Amino acid sequence: MKKSFTLYAFILLVLINVFTYMFLSKEVEFEQNRYEKTTKKLKDSLNSITTKLNDANYFSLEKNENAQNYFDSAIANKTIPYEKLIPVLKEKLMDFNANPKGNPYVGQDQIGANKFVINKVKVLNHRWIIADYSDGKMWGEVLLKYFVNEDESISFEVMQSLLYAQ
């Protein structure tokens, strides 16, 4: 009886070890496959987002080499690094928001109690800027021309302004 119990216990332990080994080896394989699939999905998502970001920034001074060359050109006598110009343009344009009648470069007169101020600015190339503006109730967009003068001051000109219907 003791010998058969020992034999049955030994066989049971061998079976438990075999099943445990098989389970753990399959679990490791399963986790590796899951990790590879997740990594592939993340890489695909990252590539997709990078492509979308590049498409969104296609019309920007940061990505437009022809527009960048305008500021590096010896013909134009301008050697302004565009990396420094973009924040200066945005800051100068936003400074006009302090005007009591609103930013004069939105192309709209004050309609209600609130003044129009510029919220977002994107420098498209060496000549154009697009900006979003609002008075809290109404929103619009404006296309501006900008010029870097000989004395490195900056001037703006409204090309077109659009106010969305409420």
TrEMBL record:
Q: Where would you find the membrane-spanning parts of this chain?
A: 6-24
Q: Which UniProt keywords apply?
A: Membrane, Transmembrane, Transmembrane helix
Superkingdom, according to UniProt? Bacteria
Q: What is this protein called?
A: Hydrolase
Its organism's taxonomic lineage begins at: Bacteria, Pseudomonadati, Bacteroidota, Flavobacteriia, Flavobacteriales
